[in-house]
Amino acid sequence: MKAHILKLLRTSGDVVSGNALCARLGASRVAVWKHIQKLQELGYDIESGARGYRLRSSPDSLHPWEFPGREARMVYHAEAPSTMDLAKDLARKGCPAFTTVVAGRQAQGRGRLRRVWSSEEGGLYFTVVLRPRIPVRWSSRVNFLASFTLASILRQGYGVDAGLKWPNDILVGGRKLCGLLSEMESEGEQVNFINIGIGLNVNNDPPKVQPPAVSLKALLGREVPRRELLSRFLDALEQGIAAESWDRVVGDWKTCSVTLNRPVRIVTTKEETSGVAVDVDENGALLLRQSDGTMATILYGDCFLQA
Ligand code: BTN
What we know:
Elements: H1 2-12, H2 18-25, H3 29-41, E1 45-49, E2 52-57, E3 74-80, H4 83-92, E4 100-106, E5 124-130, H5 139-158, E6 163-165, E7 169-172, E8 175-187, E9 190-200, H6 216-220, H7 226-243, H8 249-254, E10 263-267, E11 272-280, E12 286-289, E13 295-298, E14 302-305
Parallel strand pairs: 3-4
Antiparallel strand pairs: 1-2, 4-5, 5-9, 6-7, 7-8, 8-9, 10-11, 10-14, 11-12, 12-13
């Protein structure tokens, strides 16, 4: 109902009478008024007068009704512990692919290697449930597709020089703009679900600790609507998955890489390795030439670019 009310007010751009809204929605005046009141409480500036209602401005809302066509698969919480846990629960209960859990902020946001992901108001924090029909050994290709898709949108849609650091961070000028975390469950050899969690510094001020971070707001000198960004990303990712071009995913990712041909240090919870990042194989492993000339295949870890 709220999606419909907003659509009618937005297309009109002017005052829409209560009678017209009721007729178009097939709802009573009281029902329409209750929805308008709720929207006003949530920050929508809706003028209401004798002639009807007019939408003056909308907040940067991430509620389901702001994603026409996706409403039924969008879940929004003003505050959540971590969208990863909520999405995992839904995925295990059989929710459809592209169910997306979004949080305004997270109390226990987490990153790779058990790090805390600071999740203050203004950032974009979400987990999308994917169910690609692929074997488990290809699962990391989904992460590469997601990070490449988002980097492309940031470059083309926002003019940001987004680079990809292995495995899936998005950096701008050496500072971290976005991190990606994935969790997968399988049935035998087939993927059951892969949940991709993304934390993107949009209008928040990321903490000034290692690694150096940056927000879109700081890069562009203006606030950026998160709704539009998320919507573009979900549409593009859905197209990317439907294309099933799994053989070209890592190649596409390499075109935006800031890791290859650079000296790097790789840290896991257990060990540290250094060398030159020579390549990424078709399943996303990093091929590292070590100082003694031997090659190492790194399956996971945190990558630090060396000077
Ligand atoms: C990393 O760079 O270490 C990955 C960070 C991933 C953060 C996102 S925010 C949304 C989702 N929920 C979480 O708790 N983590 C991911």
